[in-house]
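Fold these two proteins, one after the other.
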Amino acid sequence: MATVLQTDFAWPDVGIERGVIEGAGHRLVTGPSEPSPAAAVEAMVAEHDPAAILTCWADISAEAIRRPTALRIVQRLGVGLDNIAMEAATARGAWVANVPDYCVEEVSDHAVALAYAWFRGIAQLDHAVKGGKWDPSGARLRRGATLTAGILGLGRIGRCTARKLDALGMTVLGHDIAAPPEGVPVRMVGLDALSAEADIVIVHLPLTDETHHLVDAAFLDRVKPGAFLINVSRGPVVDNDALIAALDAGRLAGAGLDVVEGEPSPPAALVARPDVIATPHVAFSSDASLAELRRRGAEEVVRVLAGEAPENPCNSIG
């Protein structure tokens, strides 16, 4: 029997994880639902000496990875890996794995929904009506099929969003380090062309050293006047100060943000604006996606504890 530490969870209970892990004969211990600071995670690791760590949002530091006597895997309950000390895991021979495709439909749906909320004025008109203002003549709405969308990042989710926007009649531009597979309805362009031509800019990028603040003042200075920015990837890909300045200057008509640098306490100067639609990092979430994520993440842990390699490894070990 091995001990599995689940550091945090973004759902009401850990019943699915417990069923899979304890059903395989292992022991599951859990931290609080809210992600703990790195030092608290390190203390949990020191107390329980886990062979596997399941983490949602909590930071898994190099120290947390070094402390266990026989750590086999750090399993991310999600896609992004920016909260895990990857190099430390690889150095000690522990796998890092994620669940890369559990929420493709949900995140792309959320991006499309934010786009619709903007060009059809859904959020602003709802607020106006609830505030006692009934003014259909004041609506400034757009026809979706006349718009051009630019997608930064054409991985699984970006490609799914491209297909949905193309089906709505939009022209779809894309920018990535590699061209997508054939059949994806997108025209690949450079970063400058995308920012200058797109009415809607959608960020579908992982957070890396290269993408940190990729959407900065220089990028936003080049955007098409009146464009709308959507970020459903990671908050720090977008520079908050540069975004506020672009909104203040009127270069952007608005922004739709499911992720914000500084979350879970994002700056009110950004998210409280009437030209910003904000949701609390829930693009990944649905009843189906969460059940799949939790089951598959726990199954990866059981697989590695049985001596097999994970199905979705994110590092290489000797």
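Now the second one:
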Amino acid sequence: MKRIKTTAIVLAAGQGKRMNSTVQKQYLLIKNKPVLYYSLKCFEESMVDDIVLVTGEAEIDFCQKQIVEKYGFSKIRMVTAGGKERYHSVACGLLAIKWECDFVFIHDGARPFVDCDMIERAFLTVQKTSACVVGMPVKDTIKLADQNGYVESTPNRSLVWQIQTPQVFEKNLITAAYEKLIATEESLKADNIVITDDAMVVEHFMNVPIKLVEGSYKNIKITTPEDLKTAENLLDS
């Protein structure tokens, strides 16, 4: 029986403008290790076969020496340059996969608290559904606002999830979806359609339902200085 092959694309090309730091957020330290280290370590220890690390072109050598070699990440098969927007970086990561691969995990390197159980749950699900995303039900009541800042509607809280990463897809499915995205991105901009995650690309271009998989409320994204403090507390606990 053919063994299923998996690759994780870990995104580390963001600028992190809300962090108010000259250092990109993925390289800021939590307990003396860069934010990026923690998610890479998790994928290194998981059932994933290979990792593509997507970073800024100017940071490729730094990542190779100060991340890959320094911490001995043997599964990182490629360090490649990303693009202007997040979806450009994902597209670059997909193009870098020249080896046998059945399923692709796409993960934000600024989410240091992904864990192996989460990865395993997503892997088991994607084999049945071809597309799944990690997330958690919201705890708060959500209001949808109109353009003037008034409440327009209140969705049923039991049906609302906050979406996280990793997001996992059958390789041919996500590749085809991103090819369509890149080919039509100018028309999407003209229609004011903003792509915010990988599931949205599949939702927009492919007729495939996307399954929600339980993640963790600890699976936060490092975006502001307050998030770094929260991350340190989570590591302590």
